[in-house]
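Weekly sync, protein design subgroup
Attendees: M.S., D.O., the rotation student, P.L. (late)

Item 1: inverse folding check
M.S. brought a backbone from last month's batch and wanted to see whether the design step gives back something sensible before we order anything. D.O. pointed out we never logged the input encoding, so this time it goes straight into the notes. Structure tokens as presented (265 positions):
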């Protein structure tokens, strides 16, 4: 008989859908007996004179079994594709997550670098500011020169310079430093002496009032008092001295001192 060719021919030539519809009744039986057993059975039956109808039924079951195998293969392929798709999606998500984490780290590193740069710039700015010197009185001029002669000065000549200043004018520390004297200074009246960071001293005399005390740290331009005419003074002005040491007599040219510190006077 032509079981093999018939089965193959029928399978190839017929509609899968119609055979599926017709053959599903046999699937349960196939599931328990298995395809090989079903193939063997009709061959044996044919040799023993079993009817064509029985053979057809058996062949139908074989076709259904092949369809089922095909369906299972399709399903397996579909599941494989779904699994591959899911794996690709998971990988893409993991990649995106890693890229996001890397971007976040980069952004944080950049923010930190910018913060540190800003802090460095601020420190540098502050360092510059503290090293800056200013005039002791804004918009003033020198009314009596250094070493000007005359009977007014106990040393025989002027140990500082006088800045023109109406009574009550703000007096500034010319640079950063520490207040080493603040109070009555005899001929200097109310006076302040500041020791600067470079070891030099400046003195401010004849003031009406003082805003600082001994030990205070002052910054360039900080108000230390108001000008006046206290002590041995011919009238309101600011007496300003620069010294290399704390003692009277170590005075140096105040204008040259201020100019050497970058002050335009
Ligand atoms: Zn003076």
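Designed sequence read out in the meeting:
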């Amino acid at each position: 008989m032509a079981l093999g060719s018939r089965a193959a021919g029928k399978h190839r030539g017929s509609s899968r859908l119609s055979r599926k519809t017709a053959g599903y009744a046999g699937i349960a039986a196939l599931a328990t007996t298995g395809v090989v057993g079903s193939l063997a059975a009709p061959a044996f039956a044919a040799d023993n004179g079993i009817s064509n109808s029985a053979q057809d039924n058996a062949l139908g079951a074989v076709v259904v079994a092949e369809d089922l195998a095909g369906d299972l293969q399709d399903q397996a392929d579909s599941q494989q594709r779904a699994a591959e798709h899911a794996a690709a999606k998971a990988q893409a998500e993991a990649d995106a997550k890693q890229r996001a984490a890397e971007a976040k780290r980069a952004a944080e590193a950049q923010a930190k670098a910018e913060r540190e740069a800003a802090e460095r710039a601020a420190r540098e700015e502050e360092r510059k500011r503290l090293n800056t010197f200013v005039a002791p009185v804004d918009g003033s001029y020198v009314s009596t020169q250094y070493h000007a002669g005359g009977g007014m000065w106990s040393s025989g000549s002027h140990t500082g310079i006088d800045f023109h200043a109406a009574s009550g004018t703000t007096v500034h520390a010319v640079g950063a430093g520490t207040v080493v004297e603040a109070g009555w200074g005899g001929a200097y009246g109310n006076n302040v002496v500041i020791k600067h960071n470079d070891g030099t001293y400046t003195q401010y005399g004849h003031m009406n009032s003082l805003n600082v005390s001994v030990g205070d740290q002052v910054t360039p331009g900080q108000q230390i008092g108001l000008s006046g005419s206290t002590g041995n003074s011919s009238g309101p002005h600011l007496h300003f001295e620069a010294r290399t040491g704390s003692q009277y007599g170590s005075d140096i040219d105040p204008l040259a001192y201020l100019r050497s510190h970058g002050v335009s006077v």
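Discussion: The longest strand covers residues 177-184. Residues 144, 158, 160, 162, 239 surround zinc ion (CB under 6 Å).
Action: P.L. to compare against the previous round before Friday.
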